[in-house]
Every structure is written in C-alpha cells, then in structure tokens.
Amino acid sequence: MDHALDVPDLAAAGGFTLRPWRLTDLPLVREASEDAYIPLITTVPAPYSEDEGVAFVERQWGRASTGTGYPFVIVDPGGRPVGNAGLWLRPEPDRASVGYWVVESARGRGAALAALRAVADWARRDLALTRLELHVEPWNTASVRTAERAGFRRERLIRDGVRTAAGYRDVFLYARPHDGTPGTPGVDL
User: Fold this and answer.
1) Where residue 66 falls among pLDDT bands split at 50, 70, 90?
2) Strands 81-89 and 95-102
3) For the domain 10-176, what is the CATH code?
4) Which residues lie across from 75 on neighbouring strands?
5) Long-range contact pairs involving 123-128 (C-beta distance under 8 Å, separation at least 24)
C-alpha cells in the first residue's frame, strides 16, 4: 500500500464503539501490558513505560498512515477504552486479516464480539473485502467462541503458524464466508 487510510468511527452492538487510537489511550496500553497474554501476541510493550506506550500508539497511527491496516480502540458504552480491534490489509486487494484483544477488567461483556462483527461488517460493506481471516490459538476458547459467534469458520490448524514473543505457536485459521450480504455467514471461499 502506498496511501494513508482513514480510520473511521464505527458503531457496534451493545453500545460499544470503535475509533482511532489517541495518546489519551495510554492507560489502556498500560493495562494491556500487565496482561499475561496480550504482550506475547501483540506489540503491546511489557514492561510498560510511558515512552513505550507512546511508541505503541504511534505504531497504530503508522499502520494507517502507511496503508497497511486499520487499528481501532474498542470503547465500552460508558466511554472507557477496553481493547483493540484491527483489520490488516494483504497484498491481494480483496483480502485482510482481523484481530482483537480486550483487557482483563473488561472481559466477559461482549466487547470482542461486538468489535469483531463491526469491523468485519464494515470491511465487507465499505471496503468490499471478500475474505477475512483470523488466527486463534487452540487453547484460547474465549477467542474461538468469539470468532465462531461472529460468523467465522474454522478451516484448519496451522502448526507453528504464528511467531510470538514466546516463540512459534499453533493456531487455528478461521475465515469469514461471504455470500454478498454483510454479516451473514454463507458458503466457504
């Protein structure tokens, strides 16, 4: 990609919203950095420092400015930032990967599901993407449920499929089928 992307504000189910990252989101980065899992699979810094937190937010801006992806902050109905959702573009013009994380203090309230559905529906409707993929570690049952409830279907296990700070890990490859109607599961691609 060679052009900047405009990260929009998106409405999501349950009163959640998605918006671009801001420097005022540093408390979210701090909480995420204290999680046992999030820093292992993302670029969230651990341990946290304000400089590293600012660098993380700037990386999110850089993804949009270089045209490689759309990073969103998940905001709960009370206005509190609780997580991240992203759409990462691929060289193929009609495909992308999605991902998400939610800080521990906000888990179990539907934030990840609302965000994943909102990003996937927007990607299909406004960006005309036909294939959305998602990687989930097999033991991460909460993310497996979230992916499946959002209309993603498991395609296969990829051995050593993702490199993390903890080394290579097996992941399930999920894809969201497309039948032409945003948000509606259809036939596999």
Assistant:
1) very high
2) antiparallel
3) 3.40.630.30
4) 17, 81
5) 123/87, 123/96, 123/98, 124/178, 124/182, 124/183, 125/182, 127/87, 127/96, 128/94
